[in-house]
Amino acid sequence: MERSQDSAAQPKSQGRRVADSRAVEVASRVGLCARGVIYVLVGILAVRIGLGRDSGQEADRSGAVGTLGEQPFGRALLWALVVGLAAMALWRLAEAAFGQTVEGGDKWSRRLGSLGMAVFYTVICIGVVQTALVGGSAGARPGDETSKEYTARVLDWPGGRVIVGVFGVVLIVVGVVILVRSLMRKFEKDLRTDAMRPATRRVVAFLGVVGGAACGVVAAGAGLSVLLAAVRYDPSQAKGLDETLRSFAATPAGPALLIAAAVGLLLFGLYSFCEARWRKAAGHETPAEQPAGSAGSGTRPGAS
Questions:
Q1: Complete DSSP assignment for 133-165
Q2: CB count, 10 Å around CB of 181?
C-alpha cells in the first residue's frame, strides 16, 4: 500500500523539481526582461504619438518589434527577443503544469492564468520569429489590423458572436483584476522585498502600482472594444493596443490621457526589469526557516 502511494506521489515530486529548477528560474527572469523591452518601447512610441510626433510606428507589440528591427544589428536583437519570449512562454507553461512557486501558486485560477499567458507569449514569439526571418521591420504586421481580421473570422463562426462577446468580457475582467491587484500592491508578494533597500522598495512599488494600473486600464479598454464588436456585429469595433491607446486622445482629457497611459506602460516595462531582478525563486520561499522576529522579512505573504 505504501509503495503504491509513493509511486503515485513520484510524478508530482518530479514535476515540482522541474518547476523549482534553476533552468525555469532563469527562463522566468529572461522572459521578464523581454516583456520589459516590449513595454518600454510601446510606451515610448505611445508618448511620441501623444506629443504629436507620430513616426508612423504603431504603439503596440508590432511597433516595438519594428523599432527593434530598424536598429543596427536589428535582426540579432529580434532573435534575442525571440529567445526571451520563448523563455517567458516556457516559464508560464511550467507554472500551469506544476503550479507557481509563490504563496497560493497551486490554485486553479493561477494555473489557468499561467496557461493563458503561455499561449499569449507563444503567439507573440511566433510573430517575432516571422519578422526576424523576413528581416528588419518588414514582417511586423499592425496589431489593429490583426485584431479586426481575427474578430471578423470568429464572428463568422456558428456562435461566433457569443465567443467574441465572452472573450471581450474576459479581457475586461482581467483588466479590472490587474488594476485592483496593482493598486493593492499584491505583486509585492512575489518579490523579495527583504533584499531591497527602503528607497529601492518604494521605487519598485511605484513602478508596480502605476505600471500595473495602466496595463489594467488598457486591457479593459481593449476588452470593451471587443465586446462592442460582438454586440454590434461589427469587427471594425475591435481595437488592438495601438488603436485603444489612440482612442484615449478622443476623450475629454485629450492627449493628456494618452500620454498618461503611455507613461504607465513604460513604467510597467521598467517594473518588469525589477521583477526579473527580485522575483522570488523556489529557494526563497522559505519564511519558516527565518529566525523569529528577523528584520525585513519581506517573504511573508502580504508584506508591504
A1: HH-TTTT---HHHHHHHHHHHHHTSTTHHHHHH
A2: 17
Of 32, 68, 46, nearest in space to 264 by CA? 46
- pTM reported for the whole predicted model: 0.81
Going from the C-alpha of 67 to that of each of 34, 77, 182, 246, the distances in angstroms are 14, 10, 29, 19
d(CA 57, CA 265) in angstroms, rounded, equals 16
| Cα–Cα distance for residue pair 46/60, rounded to 1 Å | 8
The string of pLDDT tens digits covering residues 174-197 is: 999 999 999 999 999 989 999 999
Q: Which of 103, 69, 292, 87 is nearest to 191 (CA)?
A: 103
Measured at the CA of 223, the angle between CA 176 and CA 154, to 5 degrees, comes to 145
d(CA 277, CA 253): 36
Specify the 3-state DSSP secondary structure of 248.
Answer: helix
Do residues 163 and 226 lie in contact, with contact meaning Cβ atoms separated by under 8 Å?
no
Could you tell me the three cell numbers for 293?
Answer: 522576529
The answer to whether 212 and 179 have CB atoms below 8 angstroms apart is yes
Note the pLDDT tens digit of each residue in 44-70. Answer: 998 988 887 766 667 777 778 888 888
The position carrying cell 518588414 is: 138
Q: Using the 8-state DSSP alphabet, how is residue 280 labeled?
A: P
